[in-house]
Amino acid sequence: MWRPRLDFGLVVWFGMILLVAAKPAFPEGDVIDATAAPINEKYNVDIKKIFATTCGLCHGAYGTKQGDRGGGPKLAGTKKSTEQVVEQIKNGKSGYMPAFKTALKEEQIQALAEYIKALPAN
Ligand code: HEC
């Protein structure tokens, strides 16, 4: 009778590959990149870079999660309109979020707002 010879090393390798494939370290990564790509091109910006340096402290995982620190909410699925998001970024909210109208360029703010609105709600 034919019996498969179990190569332990191969099994371990396969197991590791399956684990890595099934459990990406940052599952939202692809969604974030796919959402940002057309907006990056349209405005000639790097959403992830702007987000990481100016928003990431308070808003988690590029807007897809609640922030660890700073108390910012998850931005994906916001009920605010694109215009209201632009206003929030420009003027902030006293006691909660700083204003970014001088730190960021107009097109960076517009790009961030479009990106936030384009993120899938869940
Ligand atoms: C110092 C922390 C902090 C930083 C930095 C920050 N935020 Fe916020 N943000 C907050 C907090 C806190 C709120 C919730 C305010 C409230 O309760 O109304 C908020 C709310 C928002 C909202 C409104 C969400 C909603 O649905 O009402 C948007 C949009 C937003 N932030 C975008 C940004 C963007 C884009 C950046 C980077 C340019 C940024 N924030 C940087 C703390 C921060």
SSE arrangement:
Blueprint: H1 8-22, H2 29-43, H3 47-55, E1 59-60, E2 65-66, H4 82-91, H5 106-118
Antiparallel strand pairs: 1-2
Put the structure in a nutshell:
The chain has 122 residues and is mostly helical.
General description of the model:
The protein has a single domain, classed as Cytochrome c-like domain (Cytochrome Bc1 Complex, Chain D, domain 2, Orthogonal Bundle), CATH 1.10.760. It is elongated and about 75 Å long. The termini are far apart. The protein has helices at 8-22, 29-43, 47-55, 82-91, 106-118; strands at residues 59-60, 65-66. It is mainly α and 122 residues long. The chain has 5 helices and 2 strands, in the order αααββαα. 51% of the residues lie in helices and 3% in strands. A two-stranded antiparallel sheet has the order 1-2. Helix 2 runs antiparallel to helix 5 (106-118) and helix 4 crosses helix 5 (106-118). The model has no long low-confidence stretch (mean pLDDT 89). Bound molecules: heme C. Heme C binds at residues 54-55, 57-59, 70-73, 75, 78-80, 85, 88-89, 93, 96-98, 100, 112, 116.
